[in-house]
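## Example pair
The file below holds two records. Each record gives the amino-acid sequence first, followed by its structure token line.
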Amino acid sequence: MSGYRGDTAPHVGTLASGATGTIADVSGVRVGHCTLDAGEVQTGVTVLLPHGGDLFREKVPAGTCVINGFGKSIGLMQLEELGVLETPVALSNTFAVGALAQAQIRAAVAANPQIGCGLPTVNPVVFECNDGYLNDIQALAVHEEHYVAACAAAYADFARGSAGAGRGMSSFDLKGGIGTASRVVQAAALQYTVGALVLANFGRLPMLTIGGVPVGRELAARAASNRATQEPEKGSIIMLIATDAPLDARQLRRVAMRAAAGLARTGSVYGHGSGDIAMAFSTAYTLAHDAPIHALPPLLADSQLDPLFQASADCVEQAILDALWSASTVHGRDGRVRLALRDAAPDLADLLAGGAQA
């Protein structure tokens, strides 16, 4: 990290980023937010769209990995069994899962009126983290219209940090939220892109490690009281990984599993109370809903996956740092505050430079 200035997160690893350094570097992927910022209500919805078409009709292959299952997501069982994603992915707070699943079902039925009648039912996919430290989660403030608004606002250029589902999230006793990253790799003599989007809501301050430097220990030592930082891990993280490499669901689960390596590098130990879930999908091809035979493109051999594994780990680590750097300080319920990392540590660049030299 020689010469690091601190205005952006340090680059993780040796792989190059894509053009924008976001998950949208994987062609076709879009992300949208609807943010609820009203006093005690500090929450929102984030949606990820793998492509611009009808996902129920043109599904994408996907695989999941539950690293620690303290979570209330919807859709994982069928996703694991069938290996396809057939709705946009929705992110929000724990108590919003039901409302968002219903919104996804209504949207799918509006596009395909025979769903549940002449057609099979649809599998909504919703992931959550508990933003109850800052947000009045009991207000049940997230409704169908917020999902619709997030979908309508989905673009390749999207906000990070304290936006959408990230509005009320905390990481390492600091402000967490939405983060993203991308990497470009070579596999089987061809170039592919891997991108990650995270909803970061995990970790205790003393754990925080940035580029191998345990800066959280120094920040915790400075705190007037360390009582809060000694509480058990109760957070969660959702890690979504996209690639344009031609992989099947089994291979995508293997890519998703490597997200755990990137998560661990930031200091996480996947605590008892943490829901740590990763999902990977490919945009290289789609699977038509009503096709009697799926003609797949040539898939990468398993022996060629190592660059994608590395990219998955690096992207997730980078996306977590991006969430911390992009977040703004948020004042929430009952006078609670989560400081943004750079507000809590104005000398962060010096801490990182000193730790790297040591």
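Second record, same layout:
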Amino acid sequence: MSKILAFAGSNSSQSINHELVSYVVNQLIDEEVKLIRLTDYHLPIYQIDHEQEKGFPEDLEKLYDEIKAADALIISVNEHNGMVSSFFKNVLDWLSRLDRNFLASKKVLLMSTSTGENAASASRAYVETAIDCYKGEVLNSFGFPSFQDNFDIEKKEITDETLQLGVKDTLSQFQQKIALG
């Protein structure tokens, strides 16, 4: 059984990416999964002066410890104006200052969703490159298009059968790959 840490890269209290991550982790069988909200880790906007004067925030070290304790990560990223959100970029900036290779040996399922058909693909592409820079390995990546049209928030389920089968298949592949180490 693998230890998996899951989160969305959004700071919205009504994050559709958090909804997607929640759905996905509830589909996992025989895995130890911890779902967190990055908003529970209070990080100021990264600034070298802050780092030099005050050091690393306590919540940063807590988040870092959560990541280090996991065998794998499930991340769903949002997009603002065609780019990764400043909130998530800030989290990555802080983590990379604490340890440039903070994702070393971490296996990652990377997802994204949006209200449009592109499913936050530009943000997902940026984060995939960042994961590689921080020495993580993206095992699977997918975009979930037009969230409101394809997911029932109240029932917490995917309404499009093709997307549902795709997510199920992706999860199965991810679990097989992390089981192999």
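Notes on the second record: Helices lie at 16-27, 48-54, 58-69, 86-98, 121-133, 147-150, 161-180. The chain has one domain: 3-180.
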